[in-house]
Amino acid sequence: MAYELPPLPYDYAALEPFIDTETMKIHHGKHHQAYVNNLNAALANYPALAAKSVDDLVRDLAEVPEDIRAAVRNNGGGHSNHTAFWNLMGPVGSDGIGGAPSGAIADRISADFGDFEAFKKTFNETTAKQFGSGWGWLVLVSGKLKILTTANQDSPLTHGLYPILGNDVWEHAYYLKYQNRRPEYLAAWWSVVNWHEVNKRFAVAKS
């Protein structure tokens, strides 16, 4: 079965003014769609691989034939990363969107980083330094939260890590509004983080 572009779980304008409507339309409808199309093309002759969930496909990248591995890594990673990314954000002003976290993830952030503001500062600084295109992630390693970055569309799943939180720092994610001001985008992004989803993913990471 072919992979499909998941519908955005909110309106394209729902993240205004922090992420603009036009960026969301292009990012979801053009960039993510292209990853899906390219992934389906790469797996056209591999029905057993195409039957896997995209997360399992990326997790088991070593099992992908070498001749299509780069295409699957790039486009499967793009599909997996973006599918998580849309759900990790939510409509401005809704319950649990933006602001400080609550629940289990809030307790773990305080334990591992001191407080939320210290965590945000470290996440933003680390992610801002990612050279070129890539992602900033929050993962769980040996029971402790860790911030890391990956290049291009590489996924923590490939390295045996489950992404709890992730932010896209490819220029197509922010350039229309923020141009080359990546730190400004990173600072604004916290206003649309969906802490309900982060807590769900944290529970998965711990399981």
Keywords:
mainly alpha, Helix Hairpins, minor pseudopilin epsh fold, three-stranded antiparallel β-sheet, 9 helices, 3 strands, 49% helix, globular
Describe the structure.
By secondary structure, the chain is mainly alpha-helical. The chain has 2 domains: 21-87, Orthogonal Bundle (Helix Hairpins); 103-206, Iron/manganese superoxide dismutase, C-terminal domain (minor pseudopilin epsh fold), CATH 3.55.40. It contains 9 helices and 3 strands; from the N terminus they run H-H-H-H-H-H-E-E-E-H-H-H. It has helices at residues 21-42, 47-50, 54-59, 66-87, 103-113, 116-128, 175-178, 182-189, 195-206; strands at 134-141, 144-151, 165-168. A 3-stranded antiparallel β-sheet has the order 2-1-3, sandwiched between helices. A hairpin with a 2-residue loop joins strand 1 (134-141) and strand 2 (144-151). Helix 6 (116-128) runs antiparallel to helix 8 (182-189). The protein is globular, with a radius of gyration of 17 Å. The two termini are 29 Å apart. The mean pLDDT is 97.
What is the radius of gyration?
Answer: 17 Å
Instruction: Tell me the β content.
Output: 5-15%
Distance linking N and C termini: 29 Å
Mean pLDDT: 97
As laid out across the biggest beta sheet, the strand order is 2-1-3
CATH class descriptor name of the largest domain: Alpha Beta
The CATH architecture category of the largest domain equals: 3-Layer(bab) Sandwich
Structural class of the helix and strand makeup? Answer: mainly alpha
The secondary-structure element order is HHHHHHEEEHHH
In terms of per-residue confidence, which ranges show pLDDT below 50 for 5 or more consecutive residues? none
Helix content: 40-55%
